[in-house]
Automatic annotation (TrEMBL), chains A, B, C:
This protein's name: Uncharacterized protein
Pfam families, alphabetized: ECH_1 (PF00378)
GO MF annotation: an example: catalytic activity
Family, as annotated: Belongs to the enoyl-CoA hydratase/isomerase family.
The organism's place on the tree of life at top rank: Eukaryota
One Gene Ontology biological process: fatty acid beta-oxidation
A GO cellular-component term linked to this record: mitochondrion
Length: 273, 273, 273
């Protein structure tokens, strides 16, 4: 298999059965920067516009067992970015997520390994989540000194209920796959070898539903929330930038960056957002 | 027991203990047409106005094990009805359901056998659901090429949570009684012989609560949703008629009607809406 | 340990680790009157203003196994109070609860024994609930002929889901600790001897999250609901007083008071609101 284009973080593989794999491959841990989210948007544009495509499976093409480590700290650490760039980053990423949540395509996340923060959010926007037996999943922003974005929290509350979500979010809990399945955060657990087969089997099962009525029902179920999400991204961006520019948060994120670039904790995916 | 009046689809049996059975008997599968919903409304009027009545148990009086097969396709297939008639059908049925959901009476669904679509919705509007060991329950509209009405979906989301409901609805899942109980879609499973005894026992237990505070609490819990439902029925009716009048949906429903009137699938309750 | 001041219903014990115990001690069953809620408000003011304090554990200092028996009937029985006093009672208590629900402190309820109505509501406003193996918990207002306050019901719906909450509330169900844990109404069950150790262990675990991001996330998750609650207390107070002043409710509450002051049922905590 040829290596992807140096600037391309995604690889699209069309499969028989009218669906595509979207393989996330930004070594070493798929941190999501502005370009990553822009490429996700472009791929969703392309696949939704293709009348032969009915579904997408997101998966990791990394060497290590990481789905994605979440947002790139370089996009959040104020001294390395700007209000303007942060605004674009936040709007592009959240508009993508809100749109994925209501995509007329059937969407599956095949999660190999670690799945914190932004990776967990991308997964929650899909219709179905299957995860390997080892790994962990959750929105762990609080542990890094940053708050969970309101609509990301709202999404988890919809998926597993307000009470269970509140406990996980306030205390930055990362769940093991078995716990995540029990709470309804994921739908199935598979062996590492069986992950893609399980994802493709679920896809084929879900594609038995007629597209029009399925997509229209999905839009009815999720449309109001997604519209609020897209609007709210605009509302929250200035306040979020103010927080990111404050002394304590800058100090906190400087520490995270130092850990990531430095010693033995380098590449620990749970240390990112 | 005398056969019901040829035009009456419902039979009311008053029981000791201040409640009544409302027996649904439109052979062969209790398809719900305009008249069926009008009769349900009249019976609810009558029982709510009767100071001696404190509760209702809905059950099936059919020969086969079907609670109801859901809405009558003749009311949905555009060539057989009209915009005007469809409007009346949709408003009468949804206003009945929204009102049942907040009825001051204690309401129980005793579900013998198949309970798709409209029958599932009627059951979800009750305070308690008990079902026989064989049968299935769910909102399977998507499988027939029609979308799940927004407030019906919202009702299931309230009952079992948004995440679980989304999976069932998008993929038209009909649950077995054990699964339905585990998810909270029904409250109890009984043998076919024990169904009515279980329903009546639950009714007697629930009637231990004083009527005024129970009904006032029910109104507080469900009133906002029911008011939105009644309003939304009016909002959605024109768009729904436009869809029902479109080529693809007409073709889809023509196929359903042909299957129902034709061969071996005749009377399969899961083929109806 | 010295007995508390005769007029003080609460005792505050600061602990190593930056949290405090708030011990509820109004013998015999911690009925919550206006002064009780005012003292809770003052203690919350004090602890939130203390930069050394990061958490609160609420527990009972009573001789018998009762967390609190809920609101004092003397505040609800119209002949013993007035519209003006009831208004103050209702606003003080509900503003306290709404504020506790969004307190930047980590909050734990350590529930020894009976926990009906107002005690259940106070517990539900905390971040974590641990309960002894014997006891019961729930909002049992309906059994006493009074309806469940709308936002109290809404709080339980958030915590355990709308469907499960509706069944408990309409039928005044008091849950055993095991059932309560299964539904998510409490988080853990402990022996009577192990209760405080379990509460303190949970507190220490939760205090590992950085305060700022944890509190900001809590505010995002609960702020809208709490703001609506504080507003709604004002909206509902006149209608509630009208009901409390009506013949049937006065008769009902007179009966409760007679039972409490009279024979063998005296002090049964489940007989209070």
């Amino acid at each position: 298999m040829p290596p992807p284009d140096a600037d391309a973080f995604l690889r699209v593989e069309r499969r028989k059965g009218a669906y595509a794999l979207v393989v996330l491959c930004r070594e070493p841990v798929n941190t999501m920067n502005l370009s990553f989210w822009q490429q996700l948007t472009a791929v969703l544009d392309e696949l939704e516009a293709d009348p032969a495509m009915r579904g997408i499976i997101f998966c990791s093409g990394l060497r290590r067992d990481v789905f994605t480590a979440g947002n790139d700290i370089n996009e959040l650490y104020a001294p390395l970015t700007s209000h303007e760039r942060y605004r674009e980053f936040w709007l592009v990423s959240n508009r993508f997520l809100a749109r994925l949540y209501t995509s007329p395509l059937v969407t599956v996340a095949a999660i190999r390994g670690a799945c914190p923060a932004g990776g967990c959010c991308l997964s929650m926007c899909c219709d179905y989540r299957v995860m390997t037996e080892s790994g962990s999943i959750g929105l762990n922003e609080v542990a890094l000194g940053i708050s969970v974005p309101k609509m990301w929290a709202g999404l988890m509350m919809r998926l597993i209920g307000t009470g269970p979500a509140e406990k996980l979010l306030q205390f930055a809990v990362m769940l093991q796959p078995g716990e995540a399945k029990e709470l309804g955060l994921i739908d199935d657990v598979a062996s590492k070898e069986g992950l893609m087969a399980a994802a493709e089997q679920a896809m084929r099962q879900m594609l038995k539903s007629p597209d029009f009525s399925r997509a229209d029902t999905k839009s009815k179920l999720r449309g109001d929330f997604a519209a609020e999400w897209a609007r709210y991204a605009e509302t929250e961006v200035d306040g979020a930038w103010e927080l990111l520019s404050s002394g304590p948060v800058k100090a906190q994120l400087a520490g995270v960056l130092e850990r990531l670039s430095g010693g033995k904790k380098k590449g620990d995916p749970q240390s990112r957002l």
